[in-house]
Amino acid sequence: MATSATTDHVLAPAKPHSLLADYATLFKLRISTMVIITAGAGFYLGSLRSGISPFHAGFLQALIGIAVVTCGSSALNQALERKSDSLMRRTADRPMAAGRISLAHGLILGFAATFLGALYLAYTTNLLTGTLTLLTAIGYVAIYTPLKRVTTINTFIGAFPGALPPLIGWTAARGVIEWPGVALFAILFVWQFPHFMAIGWMYREDYARAGIRLTPNLPNARYAAQSTVVQALFYAVLMIPTSLWLSWFHITGLPYTIVATLLGLWYLYATIRFARILHGSNEADNTALARNLLKTSVLYLPLLMLAMILNAQGRLLF
Ligand code: HEM
Ligand SMILES: CC(C)=CCC/C(C)=C/CC/C(C)=C/COP(=O)(O)OP(=O)(O)O
Protein backbone atom coordinates (compact mmCIF):
# COMPACT_ATOMS: atom_id res chain seq x y z
CA MET A 1 0.00 0.00 0.00
CA ALA A 2 1.35 3.40 -0.91
CA THR A 3 2.17 5.97 1.74
CA SER A 4 0.21 9.21 1.61
CA ALA A 5 1.48 12.67 2.41
CA THR A 6 -0.29 15.23 4.54
CA THR A 7 0.81 18.83 4.88
CA ASP A 8 3.12 18.27 7.82
CA HIS A 9 3.84 14.57 7.98
CA VAL A 10 3.75 11.37 6.00
CA LEU A 11 1.39 8.65 7.15
CA ALA A 12 2.83 5.18 7.57
CA PRO A 13 1.05 2.40 5.70
CA ALA A 14 -1.35 0.43 7.84
CA LYS A 15 0.18 -3.02 7.54
CA PRO A 16 1.03 -5.40 10.36
CA HIS A 17 4.64 -5.64 11.51
CA SER A 18 6.22 -8.38 13.59
CA LEU A 19 8.69 -7.27 16.26
CA LEU A 20 11.36 -9.23 14.37
CA ALA A 21 10.70 -7.28 11.16
CA ASP A 22 10.77 -4.04 13.14
CA TYR A 23 14.14 -4.96 14.67
CA ALA A 24 15.48 -5.72 11.18
CA THR A 25 14.52 -2.17 10.15
CA LEU A 26 15.76 -0.64 13.40
CA PHE A 27 19.14 -2.30 12.91
CA LYS A 28 19.27 -1.35 9.19
CA LEU A 29 19.96 -4.97 8.39
CA ARG A 30 21.06 -4.53 4.77
CA ILE A 31 23.49 -1.66 5.39
CA SER A 32 24.74 -3.43 8.54
CA THR A 33 25.36 -6.60 6.50
CA MET A 34 27.53 -4.60 4.11
CA VAL A 35 29.39 -3.05 7.07
CA ILE A 36 30.10 -6.58 8.35
CA ILE A 37 31.26 -7.75 4.91
CA THR A 38 33.75 -4.88 4.71
CA ALA A 39 34.95 -5.45 8.29
CA GLY A 40 35.27 -9.16 7.51
CA ALA A 41 37.42 -8.38 4.47
CA GLY A 42 39.68 -6.22 6.66
CA PHE A 43 40.04 -9.02 9.20
CA TYR A 44 40.69 -11.63 6.51
CA LEU A 45 43.44 -9.60 4.82
CA GLY A 46 44.97 -8.66 8.18
CA SER A 47 45.14 -12.32 9.20
CA LEU A 48 46.78 -13.28 5.92
CA ARG A 49 49.31 -10.48 6.46
CA SER A 50 50.15 -12.12 9.80
CA GLY A 51 50.58 -15.42 7.97
CA ILE A 52 47.75 -17.10 9.85
CA SER A 53 44.42 -18.53 8.76
CA PRO A 54 41.54 -16.10 9.33
CA PHE A 55 39.31 -19.01 10.33
CA HIS A 56 39.56 -19.01 14.10
CA ALA A 57 37.33 -17.91 16.97
CA GLY A 58 38.74 -14.37 16.78
CA PHE A 59 37.11 -13.87 13.36
CA LEU A 60 33.65 -14.67 14.69
CA GLN A 61 34.19 -12.63 17.86
CA ALA A 62 35.29 -9.58 15.87
CA LEU A 63 32.33 -9.83 13.49
CA ILE A 64 29.84 -10.35 16.31
CA GLY A 65 31.19 -7.33 18.22
CA ILE A 66 31.20 -5.08 15.13
CA ALA A 67 27.70 -6.27 14.15
CA VAL A 68 26.31 -5.54 17.62
CA VAL A 69 27.79 -2.00 17.68
CA THR A 70 26.57 -1.32 14.13
CA CYS A 71 23.03 -2.43 15.03
CA GLY A 72 23.17 -0.37 18.24
CA SER A 73 24.25 2.77 16.44
CA SER A 74 21.56 2.28 13.78
CA ALA A 75 18.94 2.15 16.55
CA LEU A 76 20.37 5.32 18.14
CA ASN A 77 20.38 7.03 14.73
CA GLN A 78 16.69 6.20 14.35
CA ALA A 79 15.91 7.36 17.89
CA LEU A 80 17.47 10.75 17.08
CA GLU A 81 15.75 10.95 13.70
CA ARG A 82 12.32 9.59 14.60
CA LYS A 83 10.67 12.96 13.84
CA SER A 84 12.44 13.65 10.54
CA ASP A 85 12.06 9.98 9.53
CA SER A 86 8.29 10.36 10.02
CA LEU A 87 8.32 13.22 7.49
CA MET A 88 9.92 11.18 4.71
CA ARG A 89 8.10 8.63 2.55
CA ARG A 90 11.14 6.34 2.49
CA THR A 91 11.42 6.19 6.28
CA ALA A 92 7.95 7.01 7.68
CA ASP A 93 7.25 3.34 8.31
CA ARG A 94 10.36 2.82 10.43
CA PRO A 95 9.32 1.44 13.82
CA MET A 96 10.34 4.43 15.92
CA ALA A 97 9.09 6.98 13.37
CA ALA A 98 5.73 5.19 13.21
CA GLY A 99 5.57 4.83 17.01
CA ARG A 100 5.61 1.01 17.14
CA ILE A 101 8.87 1.04 19.11
CA SER A 102 9.00 3.61 21.92
CA LEU A 103 11.82 6.08 22.40
CA ALA A 104 12.89 4.37 25.67
CA HIS A 105 12.88 0.95 24.00
CA GLY A 106 15.06 2.19 21.12
CA LEU A 107 17.43 4.13 23.35
CA ILE A 108 17.97 1.30 25.82
CA LEU A 109 18.56 -1.19 23.02
CA GLY A 110 20.80 1.22 21.12
CA PHE A 111 22.97 2.27 24.06
CA ALA A 112 23.22 -1.29 25.43
CA ALA A 113 24.25 -2.75 22.06
CA THR A 114 26.71 0.05 21.30
CA PHE A 115 28.53 -0.01 24.64
CA LEU A 116 28.34 -3.75 25.36
CA GLY A 117 29.43 -4.51 21.79
CA ALA A 118 32.43 -2.19 22.09
CA LEU A 119 33.36 -3.68 25.49
CA TYR A 120 33.04 -7.19 24.07
CA LEU A 121 35.32 -6.22 21.19
CA ALA A 122 37.92 -4.65 23.50
CA TYR A 123 37.87 -7.84 25.58
CA THR A 124 37.91 -10.43 22.78
CA THR A 125 40.07 -8.65 20.20
CA ASN A 126 42.07 -5.69 21.50
CA LEU A 127 41.59 -2.29 23.13
CA LEU A 128 42.37 -0.40 19.90
CA THR A 129 39.58 -2.20 18.04
CA GLY A 130 37.03 -1.65 20.83
CA THR A 131 37.95 2.06 21.00
CA LEU A 132 37.91 2.58 17.22
CA THR A 133 34.50 0.92 16.97
CA LEU A 134 33.09 3.08 19.75
CA LEU A 135 34.53 6.19 18.06
CA THR A 136 32.93 5.09 14.78
CA ALA A 137 29.55 4.78 16.49
CA ILE A 138 30.02 8.21 18.12
CA GLY A 139 31.01 9.73 14.77
CA TYR A 140 27.91 8.28 13.13
CA VAL A 141 25.37 8.95 15.88
CA ALA A 142 26.61 12.05 17.69
CA ILE A 143 28.35 13.95 14.88
CA TYR A 144 27.01 12.90 11.46
CA THR A 145 23.35 12.43 12.44
CA PRO A 146 22.75 15.91 13.97
CA LEU A 147 24.81 17.53 11.19
CA LYS A 148 22.33 16.25 8.58
CA ARG A 149 20.03 19.13 9.54
CA VAL A 150 22.79 21.75 9.63
CA THR A 151 25.08 21.51 6.59
CA THR A 152 25.57 19.60 3.35
CA ILE A 153 29.10 18.80 4.59
CA ASN A 154 27.36 16.06 6.65
CA THR A 155 27.93 13.57 3.81
CA PHE A 156 31.69 14.14 3.91
CA ILE A 157 31.70 13.80 7.72
CA GLY A 158 29.48 10.68 7.59
CA ALA A 159 31.90 9.09 5.14
CA PHE A 160 34.49 8.75 7.97
CA PRO A 161 32.45 6.39 10.21
CA GLY A 162 31.17 4.74 7.03
CA ALA A 163 34.73 3.95 5.94
CA LEU A 164 36.15 2.77 9.26
CA PRO A 165 34.72 -0.81 9.43
CA PRO A 166 37.36 -2.46 7.18
CA LEU A 167 40.13 -0.70 9.13
CA ILE A 168 38.47 -1.96 12.33
CA GLY A 169 38.50 -5.47 10.85
CA TRP A 170 42.21 -5.01 10.08
CA THR A 171 43.06 -3.84 13.64
CA ALA A 172 41.01 -6.71 15.10
CA ALA A 173 43.37 -9.10 13.28
CA ARG A 174 46.62 -7.15 13.64
CA GLY A 175 46.28 -5.00 16.77
CA VAL A 176 47.68 -1.88 15.06
CA ILE A 177 46.73 0.65 12.40
CA GLU A 178 48.84 -0.01 9.28
CA TRP A 179 48.92 1.33 5.72
CA PRO A 180 47.00 -1.55 4.09
CA GLY A 181 44.22 -0.93 6.64
CA VAL A 182 44.31 2.75 5.70
CA ALA A 183 44.06 1.76 2.02
CA LEU A 184 40.90 -0.22 2.86
CA PHE A 185 39.53 2.82 4.69
CA ALA A 186 40.27 4.94 1.60
CA ILE A 187 38.39 2.52 -0.67
CA LEU A 188 35.27 2.75 1.47
CA PHE A 189 35.60 6.50 1.88
CA VAL A 190 35.72 7.17 -1.86
CA TRP A 191 33.07 4.54 -2.69
CA GLN A 192 30.40 6.33 -0.64
CA PHE A 193 30.13 9.48 -2.75
CA PRO A 194 28.67 8.13 -6.01
CA HIS A 195 26.60 5.77 -3.78
CA PHE A 196 25.17 8.59 -1.79
CA MET A 197 24.85 11.21 -4.56
CA ALA A 198 22.54 8.74 -6.37
CA ILE A 199 20.46 8.16 -3.22
CA GLY A 200 20.39 11.84 -2.27
CA TRP A 201 19.25 12.79 -5.74
CA MET A 202 16.53 10.08 -5.83
CA TYR A 203 15.08 11.17 -2.50
CA ARG A 204 15.93 14.88 -2.67
CA GLU A 205 12.33 16.01 -2.20
CA ASP A 206 11.83 13.61 0.69
CA TYR A 207 15.00 14.86 2.37
CA ALA A 208 13.99 18.51 1.82
CA ARG A 209 10.60 17.82 3.42
CA ALA A 210 12.39 16.58 6.55
CA GLY A 211 14.79 19.56 6.65
CA ILE A 212 17.85 17.45 5.80
CA ARG A 213 20.54 19.34 3.93
CA LEU A 214 22.18 17.68 0.96
CA THR A 215 23.95 18.75 -2.18
CA PRO A 216 21.12 17.28 -4.34
CA ASN A 217 18.46 19.42 -2.63
CA LEU A 218 20.28 22.77 -2.58
CA PRO A 219 17.84 25.64 -3.34
CA ASN A 220 19.18 26.29 -6.86
CA ALA A 221 18.06 23.11 -8.63
CA ARG A 222 20.41 23.54 -11.62
CA TYR A 223 23.43 24.11 -9.40
CA ALA A 224 22.36 21.23 -7.13
CA ALA A 225 22.22 18.78 -10.05
CA GLN A 226 25.57 19.99 -11.41
CA SER A 227 27.29 19.75 -8.03
CA THR A 228 25.79 16.28 -7.41
CA VAL A 229 27.07 15.01 -10.76
CA VAL A 230 30.52 16.63 -10.39
CA GLN A 231 31.03 15.10 -6.95
CA ALA A 232 29.82 11.67 -8.06
CA LEU A 233 32.10 11.74 -11.13
CA PHE A 234 35.12 13.04 -9.21
CA TYR A 235 34.95 10.21 -6.68
CA ALA A 236 34.06 7.56 -9.29
CA VAL A 237 37.26 8.46 -11.20
CA LEU A 238 39.26 8.51 -7.94
CA MET A 239 37.81 5.08 -7.08
CA ILE A 240 40.03 3.28 -9.62
CA PRO A 241 43.49 4.41 -8.35
CA THR A 242 42.26 4.20 -4.75
CA SER A 243 41.16 0.58 -5.20
CA LEU A 244 44.58 -0.25 -6.73
CA TRP A 245 46.51 1.24 -3.79
CA LEU A 246 46.23 -2.12 -1.98
CA SER A 247 48.50 -3.78 -4.55
CA TRP A 248 51.22 -1.25 -3.66
CA PHE A 249 51.49 -3.02 -0.28
CA HIS A 250 51.67 -6.44 -1.99
CA ILE A 251 48.44 -7.52 -0.30
CA THR A 252 47.06 -8.14 -3.78
CA GLY A 253 48.68 -8.57 -7.19
CA LEU A 254 47.95 -8.53 -10.93
CA PRO A 255 44.66 -10.52 -10.90
CA TYR A 256 43.13 -8.12 -8.36
CA THR A 257 44.54 -5.12 -10.21
CA ILE A 258 42.81 -6.24 -13.43
CA VAL A 259 39.49 -7.09 -11.74
CA ALA A 260 39.48 -3.89 -9.64
CA THR A 261 40.14 -1.80 -12.75
CA LEU A 262 37.27 -3.47 -14.62
CA LEU A 263 34.92 -3.09 -11.65
CA GLY A 264 36.01 0.54 -11.27
CA LEU A 265 35.29 1.21 -14.94
CA TRP A 266 31.84 -0.33 -14.46
CA TYR A 267 31.14 1.92 -11.45
CA LEU A 268 32.42 4.91 -13.44
CA TYR A 269 30.22 3.97 -16.39
CA ALA A 270 27.13 3.89 -14.15
CA THR A 271 28.15 7.32 -12.79
CA ILE A 272 28.66 8.75 -16.30
CA ARG A 273 25.18 7.51 -17.21
CA PHE A 274 23.87 9.12 -14.01
CA ALA A 275 25.30 12.43 -15.29
CA ARG A 276 22.51 12.40 -17.90
CA ILE A 277 20.20 13.76 -15.17
CA LEU A 278 21.69 17.13 -16.16
CA HIS A 279 19.99 16.98 -19.54
CA GLY A 280 17.09 14.57 -19.12
CA SER A 281 13.77 16.20 -18.35
CA ASN A 282 11.89 12.96 -17.74
CA GLU A 283 11.85 12.39 -13.95
CA ALA A 284 11.20 8.63 -14.28
CA ASP A 285 14.22 8.19 -16.58
CA ASN A 286 16.40 10.24 -14.24
CA THR A 287 15.29 8.19 -11.22
CA ALA A 288 16.09 4.99 -13.14
CA LEU A 289 19.63 6.28 -13.80
CA ALA A 290 20.10 7.09 -10.09
CA ARG A 291 18.68 3.72 -9.05
CA ASN A 292 21.03 1.99 -11.48
CA LEU A 293 24.00 3.80 -9.90
CA LEU A 294 22.81 2.79 -6.40
CA LYS A 295 22.47 -0.86 -7.50
CA THR A 296 25.89 -0.78 -9.17
CA SER A 297 27.44 0.66 -5.99
CA VAL A 298 26.06 -2.08 -3.74
CA LEU A 299 27.21 -4.80 -6.15
CA TYR A 300 30.61 -3.22 -6.85
CA LEU A 301 31.71 -3.21 -3.22
CA PRO A 302 31.25 -6.91 -2.26
CA LEU A 303 32.69 -7.94 -5.64
CA LEU A 304 35.77 -5.79 -5.02
CA MET A 305 36.14 -7.28 -1.52
CA LEU A 306 35.78 -10.80 -2.94
CA ALA A 307 38.44 -10.08 -5.58
CA MET A 308 40.92 -8.83 -2.98
CA ILE A 309 40.31 -11.78 -0.65
CA LEU A 310 40.64 -14.38 -3.42
CA ASN A 311 43.79 -12.80 -4.80
CA ALA A 312 45.40 -12.36 -1.37
CA GLN A 313 44.57 -15.97 -0.46
CA GLY A 314 45.85 -17.17 -3.85
CA ARG A 315 49.16 -15.34 -3.40
CA LEU A 316 49.68 -17.23 -0.16
CA LEU A 317 48.86 -20.62 -1.67
CA PHE A 318 50.67 -20.40 -5.03
C1 HEM B 1 27.68 9.06 3.86
C2 HEM B 1 27.51 7.77 3.77
C3 HEM B 1 26.24 7.03 3.43
C4 HEM B 1 24.97 7.48 3.32
C5 HEM B 1 24.45 8.88 3.57
C6 HEM B 1 24.13 6.33 2.97
C7 HEM B 1 22.76 6.35 2.82
C8 HEM B 1 22.01 5.30 2.37
C9 HEM B 1 20.57 5.32 2.20
C10 HEM B 1 19.68 6.49 2.56
C11 HEM B 1 20.19 4.13 1.67
C12 HEM B 1 18.79 3.68 1.39
C13 HEM B 1 18.45 3.76 -0.07
C14 HEM B 1 17.03 3.29 -0.35
O1 HEM B 1 16.25 3.07 0.58
O2 HEM B 1 16.69 3.17 -1.56
C15 HEM B 1 21.39 3.35 1.50
C16 HEM B 1 21.44 2.09 0.95
C17 HEM B 1 22.47 1.25 1.14
N1 HEM B 1 23.68 1.56 1.71
FE1 HEM B 1 24.33 3.41 2.16
N2 HEM B 1 24.91 5.22 2.87
C18 HEM B 1 26.19 5.59 3.18
C19 HEM B 1 27.25 4.75 3.31
C20 HEM B 1 27.13 3.39 3.28
C21 HEM B 1 28.13 2.47 3.77
C22 HEM B 1 29.44 2.85 4.42
C23 HEM B 1 27.66 1.23 3.54
C24 HEM B 1 28.28 -0.09 3.85
C25 HEM B 1 29.53 -0.36 3.82
C26 HEM B 1 26.39 1.36 2.88
C27 HEM B 1 25.64 0.30 2.42
C28 HEM B 1 24.42 0.42 1.82
C29 HEM B 1 23.66 -0.69 1.25
C30 HEM B 1 24.10 -2.15 1.18
C31 HEM B 1 22.46 -0.15 0.80
C32 HEM B 1 21.32 -0.88 0.07
C33 HEM B 1 20.35 -1.32 1.11
C34 HEM B 1 18.99 -1.55 0.54
O3 HEM B 1 18.84 -1.92 -0.62
O4 HEM B 1 18.07 -1.28 1.32
N3 HEM B 1 26.10 2.68 2.76
N4 HEM B 1 22.46 4.07 1.93
C1 LIG C 1 31.17 -0.17 13.31
C2 LIG C 1 30.12 0.84 13.25
C3 LIG C 1 29.66 1.46 14.48
C4 LIG C 1 29.63 1.17 12.05
C5 LIG C 1 28.54 2.14 11.89
C6 LIG C 1 28.84 2.96 10.72
C7 LIG C 1 27.68 3.07 9.83
C8 LIG C 1 26.40 2.31 10.04
C9 LIG C 1 27.84 3.89 8.85
C10 LIG C 1 26.79 4.07 7.88
C11 LIG C 1 27.23 5.12 6.94
C12 LIG C 1 26.27 6.20 6.87
C13 LIG C 1 26.77 7.55 7.21
C14 LIG C 1 25.01 5.93 6.49
C15 LIG C 1 24.03 7.00 6.40
O1 LIG C 1 22.85 6.56 6.76
P1 LIG C 1 21.73 7.53 7.29
O2 LIG C 1 21.62 7.31 8.76
O3 LIG C 1 21.89 8.94 6.85
O4 LIG C 1 20.55 6.89 6.48
P2 LIG C 1 19.00 7.09 6.63
O5 LIG C 1 18.66 8.31 5.87
O6 LIG C 1 18.47 5.83 5.99
O7 LIG C 1 18.71 7.16 8.10
Secondary structure layout plus pairing:
Elements: E1 4-5, E2 10-11, H1 19-26, H2 29-49, H3 57-80, H4 82-87, H5 103-124, H6 127-147, H7 154-174, H8 179-202, H9 204-209, H10 221-248, H11 254-274, H12 283-317
Antiparallel strand pairs: 1-2
Bound molecules: protoporphyrin IX containing FE and farnesyl diphosphate.
Verbal overview:
The radius of gyration is 20 Å and the shape is globular. The chain folds into two domains: 19-177, Tetracycline Repressor, domain 2, CATH 1.10.357.140; 178-318. The protein has twelve helices and two strands, in the order E-E-H-H-H-H-H-H-H-H-H-H-H-H. A hairpin with a 4-residue loop joins strand 1 (4-5) and strand 2. The protein has helices spanning 19-26, 29-49, 57-80, 82-87, 103-124, 127-147, 154-174, 179-202, 204-209, 221-248, 254-274, 283-317, and strands at 4-5, 10-11. It binds protoporphyrin IX containing FE and farnesyl diphosphate. Residues 30-31, 34-35, 38, 90, 155, 158-159, 162, 188, 192, 195-196, 199, 298 line the site of protoporphyrin IX containing FE (HEM). This is Protoheme IX farnesyltransferase. It catalyses: heme b + (2E,6E)-farnesyl diphosphate + H2O = Fe(II)-heme o + diphosphate. Belongs to the UbiA prenyltransferase family. Protoheme IX farnesyltransferase subfamily.
